[in-house]
Amino acid sequence: MIIKRNLLCVKQKEKLDLGELLLYEPYKNILQNFVDLATRKEAKDFDPVAKVYDGLLSVPPEMKEYYEALLGVTSYYQHSQGGRGRYIEKKIASAFESCSLDIKLSELPLWLESPVLHKKKGIFTLNGLNTEEKKKIRQTPWDWVGDRDESTDVGSLLRKERTVVLIEIKNRVDSGGSAARREIWTSQKFGIIVDYLLKNEKIYKKNGKKFSLSELLKFFNFDTLELYIGVLFDKGDRPATIQADKRNGFYSSSKEGFAYLRNKIKTYKKIKILSQDLEHLKIQILLPNSLKLKVGALYGNDITLNLFRKRLPVSDLLLLRYDDIWLSQLITIDERSFLLKYNKNFSTIFRDLLKRDRNLRGKYDKLIISECRKRELEQITEYLLLEYSKIFDKRLTPKTRERRGYLADVIQVLSAADA
Questions:
Q1: N or C: which end of the chain has fewer CB within 10 A?
Q2: pTM here?
Q3: What is the pLDDT of residues 324-341, one digit of tens each?
Q4: Which residues, at least 6 apart from 23, have a Cβ–Cβ distance to it below 8 Å?
């Protein structure tokens, strides 16, 4: 049976929204490398030591090629970062116009002055900027004169509320470790920002005039700064809660770090504490220059509520569920095992037929233009099995698969790589 898979990489790139674009390029790169592994023996080789260590020299003959293919394909994928590192932060930043990511203290003037440019740089890096945008960044009139820089994962500018929100993201309650969680509040993250605010130290300069952090915020018409650690999920796929953090996470380390930060704040007599809650890790203070500072911990849907001032389920961050990775990886393992055993597979046969059969090229082009619509997929699969049934040897089909459905999956993986 032919199943139409939900593949992102068969879609037209120019029609994708920002959330899909974050996955498109890394997915495309992975798929193209998988196809290379499926069609070229020399795409992956093991040195003599690896063959011994990984058991390639002792594996039973009947499964040697499959094991070698499994090892080669999965090792490539596990070593491929593929854009995974900052995907969540980029997905959050893409959800709201004035939201950005990688908020460095030293680059704060750029974000406050040019939020769209800062966001584009954060999502696509400098390589994704045009010449004029790069020039604007190079020629910023703001100098950084601080001695300790700091970077926070995501932030948003709420101009109507005159508020800047910064959030350090943890994917799960058990992400990182106890030391890492504690350091967010102390020496590595929030402690640096709070120090600058409490001491009112001058850390920016423009046209000879120096600004402290609070003065910079006031200069850009912001009078509230909110700093949060945000924990997205519990140990499953459910929105995190403080109870889940206490039960399975690093709440105790957070509480320890928060207590340290609160005690630091309390040593400054000119600071007015408006409210505090040690158990829920929240404190709100008023600085002498009337800048309000809120520091706290957020869990699950409270992250989006505070970042966007809209209650959006954090589970929506997981909604982009595509078949590209799991399908292409499984197909490539089977295809490479056949390639190693028989020196051919459905992928190499199909690629060879494309050179020889003009009608097939036309059907393949229609398939890609249609974004792999089921009707076109069925047509090209039936054409191949009608015209070239003997060439698509049943030995090249996994024992657990039916030939027609397997061939359709191979074609979909190839078209996703070629589209």
A1: N
A2: 0.79
A3: 999 999 999 999 999 999
A4: 8, 83, 87, 320, 322
